[in-house]
Amino acid sequence: GLRVAREATTRASRAMSADLAALRAYVTAETHAQRPAATTIRLRVSHSNLKTSFLEIRFDAHQTIDEVKRKLMTHCGSNASAMTLVLRDVDGSVVAVMGDETRKLGYYGASDGMELHVVDNDPQSLSANGWLEDVSKVKKYEMSDEDYEKRESTYRKWKREQVARDPSWTIEKHMAEQRGQTYVPPEQVNDDTGAEDAAKIEVGSRCEVNPGAKRGVVKFVGRCEALPPGFWIGVQFDEPVGMNNGTVKGVKLFECNDGYGSLQRPKNVSCGDFPPLDDVDFSEDEI
Fold first, then answer.
1. Quick one: which of 76, 108, 156, 201 is 20 to 30 A from 250 by CA?
2. How far apart are CA 75 and CA 146, in angstroms?
3. Does the reported pTM lie above 0.70?
4. Quick check: helix, strand or coil at residue 178?
5. How far apart are alpha carbons 231 and 266 in whole angstroms?
6. pLDDT tens digits, residue range 67-123?
């Protein structure tokens, strides 16, 4: 009985070993679908005919240059036979021209972060002359107003129905209602927008701009043809939290260092005792 039990255990052990061996062979097989992570290389791909670059396409160091070219065909539209691949370092310097299609990618020293530049040598390539990026070269289907009106369930008809029910309807109002929000129409501006608030503000006054509680000095009060209608307040901030140097769209309104200037609507500017924050006395008694 003991001998029979030992033989059964031995057979089971051999069967298990065979199963494990089969599993190991399956996992480590060169399937070209899943590869060891240690040989994966992430390269940025650029193209001689395209403005777009492709970030971090994954390749395997064991792929031949021919295999790399065939993979790139699906990304850039160039025929593999017309490609010349150039490997560049992170600083743009050329590492190698990968001209031997039988060599493997790792042979040329490719590593993570490098650039793989594709040169398309075919003048008739799909990617030539902007055909894959310039949509103006593609003829668009255009439908006449008469044919469009014959269609059912169009946006134009739906919009007419909404406006008939609510003359103040807009797509912005509709979207706000869909989100469960109360729609607030944008402020209508004209030459007198902000005039009342602007009358209370004088050039040279210390001020605070909200939102943000940014402090500075008023440098300009008035209208500006380069900006939308209404009154504007030019502020020189104490800190470089502005957007300009007092010049807006080529029009010089006031002078300050670059990054310290800003144009605000009068309602955002409060004048008063707003010293620079560095001058504020944060004593322990006040804290």
1. 201
2. 40
3. no
4. helix
5. 7
6. 999 999 888 778 899 999 999 988 788 889 999 999 999 999 898 889 999 998 888
